[in-house]
Design goal:
Distance between the termini: 31 Å
Largest sheet: 7 strands, mixed
Number of helices: 13
CATH architecture of the largest domain: 3-Layer(aba) Sandwich
Bound molecules: pyridoxal-5'-phosphate
Number of domains: 2
Oligomer: single chain
Helix content: 40-55%
CATH superfamily of the largest domain: Type I PLP-dependent aspartate aminotransferase-like (Major domain)
CATH class of the largest domain: Alpha Beta
Structural class: alpha/beta
Order of helices and strands: EHHEHEHEHEEEHEEEHHHHEEHEEEHH
Amino acid sequence: MKKYLLSPGPTPVPEEILQIMSEPMVHHRTPAFKAMVGQAIEGLKYVFQTENDVLIFSASGTGAMEGAVSNVLNKGEKAIIIRNGKFAERWGEIAEKYGIESLYVDLPWGTVGQPATLDNLLKENPDVKAVYTQLTETSTGVVMPVKELGEIVSKTDALLVIDAISGLGGQEFYMDDWNVDICVAGSQKGLMLPPGHAYAAISEKAWTKIEKCTQPNYYFDWKLYRKKLATNTDPFTGSVLHIKGLLKAIEIIKEDGIQTRFNRYRNLATACRAAIKALGLEMFAETPCDVVTAVKVPKTVDGLALVKKMRDEYGFTIAGGQAGVKGKIFRIAHMGYIERFDIIAVISVLEMVLHDLGWKFEWGAGLSAAQKILAEEYK
Ligand SMILES: *Cc1c(COP(=O)(O)O)cnc(C)c1O
């Protein structure tokens, strides 16, 4: 059976990237490799839309999240964490480990809250040092109003820290224009690479705070990584193959242009949403993002069976719900190396599985709604 991967990480890797990542090993301390690292960093700046330093870590995305707490805040310092999904909760868990005093903005999953809430909280707590949230909260499919949050936080001494692990490269995002101080990402979602690389882009405002941070860090000591930037070296033995793959991924992204890619994922998302609606289903996210579509499972349908059937009987890996929404939602990812005919295929299978599970709809309704949008707008 042919396998399709439409999960929100890992995502499919283009053949040309896989090929490069199977080339013979090169040594990580050679001039040729350092040149590649330099080029990769420059390329990442384009993807982040930033002039800031970008650090590369051999780790999963969470490694960069941990560093964005442990390098920034001292024990007992205050942070605001907007908690509206599984990955938002992760910020809280990390902060707790490092003894940070977290002020939580707890919101129902699938919602994003009001920027004014943050504004007020910052005014009431002028000693808050950083605000943590996501660009796209993968567990619920929402996009956060990062630009608005940036306008608010940039007027204060606090830093805005964004987890763009699933959003980077797909969801519209401009780090510098939107006043983001630290942005973290990972390789296996929008960047079309296997898991194993994490990235952090860091503003000067953030570096000033990082210089004053005294938390113990060894592998994720960002000050050490910054020192090594001058020579394009990793303090340790970085993933050589990921650097090679990353260069190819950046080449692909640059060839399209980042704006074209934002438009394309928006089109894929719009097509998915239209299909969902045409099948009589409802979106889970209040403000749906462009990289993953989260859908409410109707009461009469078994949500766990839906995801399992798609994978085991049809070869399509999508994602179910996590934690509190397990069995209650399913998620179709359209990040990274996913194009319009992958959407056609997954909607087609979704119809078959919904039919198997007794949901009533008109055959082809979802497909036709998606196809119309993919045909009209996709460039
Ligand atoms: C996947 C994901 C993470 C976790 O990344 P890992 O690479 O699994 O460590 C964190 N935040 C968001 C928004 C994600 O989508």
